[in-house]
Amino acid sequence: MREIDAKTQTELEAAVFRRLVAHLRTRTDVQNIDLMNLAGFCRNCLSNWLKDAADEKGLPLTKDESREAVYGMPYAEWKSRHQTEASPEQQTGFAASQAEGH
């Protein structure tokens, strides 16, 4: 990648993050367990990383606020609208991925 200044790089990275979050908000059919099984991270991970970044900067951000920033609504509401019970296959895949250290 070409040399770009730090401010521009941060702006690009922020745009990518916003696009990823927007994409995940529209793909409510994709469950967090599917994301974990395939990629080793999910919406909750993103919200935790956002909170960690805020904490590192000394900015007040609660876990609920960081989840709402990722989910686009309170987490409990998202779960009641979109989360389904994990299938035995999903649970097996999750257990295997956790055993591998993901």
From TrEMBL:
Residues 30-95 form the SMc04008-like domain. InterPro entries: SMc04008-like_domain (IPR023163), SMc04008-like_sf (IPR036810). Residues 79-102 are annotated as: Disordered. SUPFAM superfamilies: SMc04008-like. It holds the Pfam family DUF1244. Gene3D superfamilies: SMc04008-like. Residues 85-95 have a biased composition (Polar residues). This is DUF1244 domain-containing protein. It comes from Methylobacterium longum.
